[in-house]
Amino acid sequence: MSTQEKIGPRASDEELMRLLDGELDQARRTQVLAQLDEDDELRGKVAQLGLVGDLLREHVDQDSRADGIADEVIARLSAEPAQGKAGQVIELPLASRLRVNAPGRPNRVSANDNARSVFWMAGLAAAVAVGLFFWSRASLKDMSLAEGLTAGAKATAAAVAWQPSATVPEPAWLSHPAATAADRDDDSSAAVEVASVDFGSNSGSVFYVSTGSSKTTTTTAVVWVTDGVPGGKR
Amino acid sequence: MRRAAIGAALALSLLGPAALAQPKPSQPPAEQPAQATAAAEVIVLYASNSGAKKPDSEKLKDKLPQLREPPLSSYDTYEHVKTDTLALTKDTERQMALPEDRALKVTLEDVLAPKKGSTKPRYALRASIVKAGGKALLPELKVQAGADEVFFVAGPAFKKGILVIGIRLQPK
Questions:
Q1: What single DSSP character describes residue B27?
Q2: Any CB–CB contact under 8 A between A233 and chain B?
Q3: Residue-wise over A177-203: b if at least 16 C-beta within 10 A, else e?
Q4: What does B50-111 look like in DSSP terms, one character per residue?
Q5: Which of A36, A51, A63, A91 is a Cys-bridge partner for A59, taking CB atoms 3.0 to 4.6 Å apart?
Q6: Residue A52 and residue A120 in one domain
Q7: Same domain, yes or no, for A152 and A196?
Q8: Whole domain around residue A162: which residue ranges?
Q9: Is there a single domain that holds both residue A127 and residue A210?
Q10: Looking at the 3D structure of chain A, how many domains does it have?
Q11: Looking at the partner chain, which of A131, A149, A179 has a beta carbon nearest the beta carbon of B84?
Q12: A58 lies in a domain?
C-alpha cells in the first residue's frame, strides 16, 4: 500500500472541522492525523482558523467525544491562536493581570472572550511550547545596525524594491541578547503584553509563545494577521 | 566712589538670593517633564516553504528561536529582508517601508514605569500596517513591551509566503 493510500485524500476544511469536533470516523481520523504530521499547510490552516481554540472552548470541557482528539491535535499543533474575526477590535487583558502562564507552556489569550482570557492547554506543554529561546551570546558577525539600515531610516510608504540578500546579514539587534526571566529582576513572565488588536476587515490571531528554557521561561507575543495566505506549506 | 560701592553691595545683596534661586541651566524646569523617547528596532523576514535547507535561514532561527516554534514554524525557510531602527518620540508616528508598497507605522504612546522589582522601562506602543493606497492590513495593535523584549507581527502576504516582522524596543 502506498503512502498516499495510507493517508487517503487530502483532508478538506470540513473534515478538519469534524476531526476537531470528534465526529470523524476512526479510519479517516487516523488518515487525517497522519496528514497533519506531514503537512504544514494543513497544520497552519487549522491554526489559522482557530479551530483548536473552538475545540478547547466548546468541546474539551463539555464533550467527552473530543477528549482523545484534542490531545492528538494539540500534540500536533502545539500552539493555539487567539482568533479575531474581521472587523472586530480585540481587547486583551494584559498578561500582567492574567499571570497564568506556566513555564514551558505557550498560552493563548482569547481574542473573543475577555472573561476567558487565557486558555490553558495542558497538551501544549509536552508538544512544543518550550521554546528554548537562546539568544545567542556567542560572538556574532559584525554587521552593525548601520549596515542593516537602508534609506528606510526616513522611510515612507514608498515602494521597496526588495532583493533577497546574497547572504543573510545579522542585524545588530540580534546580537543583543533579549531579556530572559533570569535577567529580568521582576517576577513578570510576560515579556510583551498585547493590550488590543484591531484586525479590521481581516481575521487574525494572537499567540503567546514561550521564549525561554524551563528556568527562564517568558512569553512573547506573535500577532498573526491573515492576509489571504494559508499558513504553512503550499 | 564710596557711594557707588555701597550701591553695588546693596544691589548684590538684593539680587544675590534671587540669582541663587534660579534653576541651573542644565536642569529642565520642573514643570516640563522629559520627552518620552525610545528606539524601535525592526527586522523584516520573508517566511516561505521553499523546502530548501538554507544555512542563512538556520542562522536566523538560531538567533530567533521563536521561528522554530508554532505558529512561525509552519514556514521552513526565513530570509532577511531588511532591518531598520525607528527613533520614537511620544505620540509621533514613524513609518518603515515594507515590500510591495506597504508600511509599518509605529507610535510610542508612553514610557511606563518599570515593574516592581525591575529597573527596565516598559513601553506602550501602537502599531499598524497599511497597504499601498492607505488601506489598513492591520489597523491597530497595542502592546506593552519591556525594554529589549521582542514581539512579532506576521502574516502580510509576500511572494509565496509571508512577512514576519520582529520589533524590539530599547531606550533611545
A1: S
A2: yes
A3: ebbbbeebebebbbbbbbbbbbbbebb
A4: -----HHHHHHHHH-GGGGSTTGGG--EEEEEEEEEEEEETT-EEEEEETTTEEEEEEEEEE
A5: A63
A6: yes
A7: no
A8: 145-174
A9: yes
A10: 2
A11: A149
A12: yes
- Tens digit of each residue's pLDDT, chain B (172 residues): 455 555 555 454 444 444 444 445 555 544 445 679 999 999 999 999 988 778 889 999 988 888 988 889 999 999 999 999 999 999 999 999 999 999 999 999 999 988 877 788 999 999 999 998 889 999 999 999 999 889 999 999 999 999 999 999 999 8
Tell me how crowded residue B24 is: count the other CB atoms within 10 A of its CB.
Answer: 6
**CA-closest candidate to residue A204, choices B136, B99, B102:** B136
Residue A234 is assigned to a structural domain of this protein: no
**Which among B54, B69, B45 is positioned nearest to B159, based on CA atoms?**
B45
Q: Domain locations in chain B?
A: 37-170
Name which of B41, B76, B140 is nearest A173 (Cβ-Cβ): B41
Q: Is A166 on the interface with B (CB under 8 A)?
A: no
Residues A86 and A165 in one domain: no
Q: Is residue B100 within 8 angstroms of chain A, CB to CB? A: yes
Whether B172 contacts chain A with CB within 8 A: no
Residue A230 lies in a domain: no
Q: In which residue are the cell numbers 472573561 written? A: A115
Contact of B155 with chain A, judged by CB distance below 8 Å, is answered with yes
A170 plus A181 within the same structural domain: no
Q: Cell 470541557 belongs to which residue?
A: A61
Instruction: Tell whether A47 and A82 lie within a shared domain.
Output: yes
Query: Does the beta-carbon distance from A186 to B147 stay under 8 Å?
Result: no
Contact A199 B149 (CB under 8 A): no
In a domain, A204, yes or no: yes
pLDDT (tens digit per residue) in A190-201: 678 899 999 998
If asked whether residues A151 and A107 sit together in one domain, one would say no
Whether residue A149 sits in one domain with residue A75: no
Cβ-contact A69, A37 below 8 angstroms: no
Asked if B63 and A156 come within 8 Å (Cβ–Cβ), the reply is: no
Calpha distance A151→A145 (Å, rounded):
13
pTM: 0.55
Closest chain A residue to the Cα of B87, Cα to Cα:
A153
